[in-house]
Structure formats: structure tokens, C-alpha cells
Amino acid sequence: MRFTPVRAIVLRQLYLLRGGPTRVLSLVIWVAIDIILWGFMTKYLNTVTAAGFDFVPVLLGAVLMWDFFTRVMFGVTMAFFEDVWSRNFLNIFGSPVSINEYLAGLVCSSIITSTIGLLVMLVLSVALFGLSFILYGGLLVPFLMVLFLFGIALGIVGCSFVLRFGPSAEWFVWPIPAILSPFAGVFYPISTMPTWIQWIAHLLPPMYIFEGMRAIITGGTMSLTSLVIGGVLAVIYVLGASLLFTQVYRNAVRTGLIARYSAETVA
């Protein structure tokens, strides 16, 4: 893998961010709204429930981590969509850029955009609502890493859908985090869900993260085995998503689908 093509893809995204304040605003406005909304909700819950239990690290911490995952996923898909919307997609793949280099460029772009969103969430949650990350200890880093890898995987899967079915398939991508959140146990333990949903939840890396987070906050400990399982699953999803994108691209080239990609729908 060459560094120069990856750098070029990232540089294009940075030029786009620099060229329009609306793009930068979109990176922070939604996460800021989520943190403020859930922050005041947790403060309200603290005033109407039994003393001794703090909802801030439980709910607001979960919102922050889930929004980070969402920003990572959308960071990959938005970088891909920029090429689709500007009809630059064929130019990219008509150049000597390999699939691995292109995906690496999307991932690096996502790292930049998701980091911006994460910093905004950290500042708001700490300054306005007193969220302390000391409670999570050193596990905060692996927590975020697992969510990052899973976000990258789903972002690549979303790009694969759009590559296969055309620009009109965007609507498949936007609801993915909302659809997964009930199964991942973001706001509640998976023990409250039916058994068949719990089986699905065990296939999702975020479930292990949020279950571990709640265990730590309530005075327990997180099983190292659960963290390892979540990390291994995330890596498997990344590899599977990359393979899916590669296969979809090769099929598009072989069938001539990529030459008709400017159409609203691709059949």
C-alpha cells in the first residue's frame, strides 16, 4: 500500500471541510444537540429518582460512546458519498489508486472527522454536566477502539451497498445506527430483552462495551474475556466488510456496472 494515494484522498476531504463552513458545522451540531439533550435529561432524572445513583455516567456516557461510533461510521460513508455526489467516483477508480488505498483513505478521513466530534462531546459533557471519565479507568481507550473498529466496518458495508445499488441506496445507510442501538444494549442491560434478541446482541461488539461500562459504573468489574470477544468480533467485521467492498467493486468492473454509476439507480 502506498502512502501518497491515501494522503491524496484525505487531503481532498480536508479541502472540502475548509471550503464550506456547513460541512464543519455538520460534524459538531448533531453531537452537540445529543449531548445537551441527554445531559439535561440525566440531570432531571437525578432529581426525581432515589439518591445515590448518578445517571450522568450511565446515560450520558452511553450517548457519548454511541455518538462516537456513529460519527466514525458516517465519517467513512460521507467521504465516499462526496465522491458519489460530485460524480468523482469514476475518476477515483480510473486512477492507479487501489481498493486498499482507497479504503485506507476513507478510514483516515473518518479518524479526522470523528475526532473532531469526540472532542466537542468531551468538552460539552465535562464542562456542562460534570461527566467524569475517571470512572471508566483505563478501559475507556479499548472501549473507544472497539467502537471505532465496528464503526469502520459498518461504514464500509454502507459504501458497499451504495456501490452496488447506486446513489439512491443512501437511505439504507442512514438508519443503521438507530436500527442497531436496541440490539446493542446502549441504554439498558441486554437481560431486559427477549432471549432471541440477546442472541443477536452477542454478535455485536458494542454490546460487550456497554455491558462492561454499566458493570464498572455500578461498582463491578468488566470481564477481560468479554472485552477480547468484542475486539475480535470488531476485527472480524472490519475484515469481512473490506472483503465485501472488494468483491462488490470487482463485480461492478466485470459487469460494466461502474460505467453506469452516474445513474440514480444502478441495476
Outline of this structure?
This protein has helices at 3-19, 21-48, 55-85, 89-93, 99-129, 140-165, 176-184, 195-201, 205-217, 224-255. It is mainly alpha-helical and 267 residues long.
Structure description:
The chain has helices at residues 3-19, 21-48, 55-85, 89-93, 99-129, 140-165, 176-184, 195-201, 205-217, 224-255. By secondary structure, it is an all-alpha fold. The chain has one domain (3-260). Helix 2 crosses helix 5 (99-129) and helix 6 (140-165) runs parallel beside helix 10 (224-255). The two termini are 32 Å apart.
Helical content stands at: over 70%
Low-confidence parts lasting 5 or more residues at pLDDT below 50? 263-267
Q: Helix/strand-derived class?
A: mainly alpha
Span from first to last CA?
32 Å
> What is the total number of structural domains?
1
Global outline: globular
Strand content: under 5%
Q: What's the tally of helices?
A: 10
Radius of gyration: 20 Å
Helix-strand topology string: HHHHHHHHHH
Mean pLDDT: 86
Number of distinct beta strands: 0
- Please summarize the sheet with the most strands: none
